[in-house]
Amino acid sequence: LLDNESAEKAYNFSMRESIRNGILARKKGGLLGGWCVYICSGVAGNKAPSVKELTLIIEATGARVITSLNDSDMLEPHCIMILTSDPSTEAQRNEFGVRKMERFG
């Protein structure tokens, strides 16, 4: 795994450097440490992992999954990521709090 020179050359990366960067990121709380992620309805299980699997993936990055976009959950709105379908559906854009979050980018 650490000595795949053909892949490193083809994709222009260093496996050792990638692992070193991952270790440093975990020490700082993870790649998404300090972030919250809201999963819109219709995302999980529809050509995507199940809610349980998505939650495990998100938590592995250091982020926290939130189940609502109530004001109490949005203390740091600039640190909330919203997962939608691509493209997002009208129903997802109309979920409580999603339009409010659009103001933050």
Number of strands: 3
Q: What's the helix-strand series? A: HHEHEEHH
User: Largest beta sheet: what is the strand line-up?
Assistant: 2-1-3
- Show unreliable segments: none
Distance between the termini: 38 Å
Short description:
Strands 2-1-3 form a three-stranded parallel sheet, covered by helices on one side. The relative contact order is 0.16. 37% of the residues lie in helices and 10% in strands.
How would you describe the overall organization of this protein?
The protein has 105 residues and is α/β, with parallel strands linked by helices. The chain has 5 helices and 3 strands. The protein has helices at 5-11, 15-27, 51-60, 90-93, 98-102, and strands at residues 36-39, 64-66, 80-83. Strands 2-1-3 form a 3-stranded parallel sheet, covered by helices on one side.
Break the fold down into its secondary structure elements and pairings.
Elements (H helix, E strand, L loop, with lengths): L4 H7 L3 H13 L8 E4 L11 H10 L3 E3 L13 E4 L6 H4 L4 H5 L3
Parallel strand pairs: 1-2, 1-3
Characteristics:
105 residues; alpha/beta; three-stranded parallel β-sheet; 37% helix
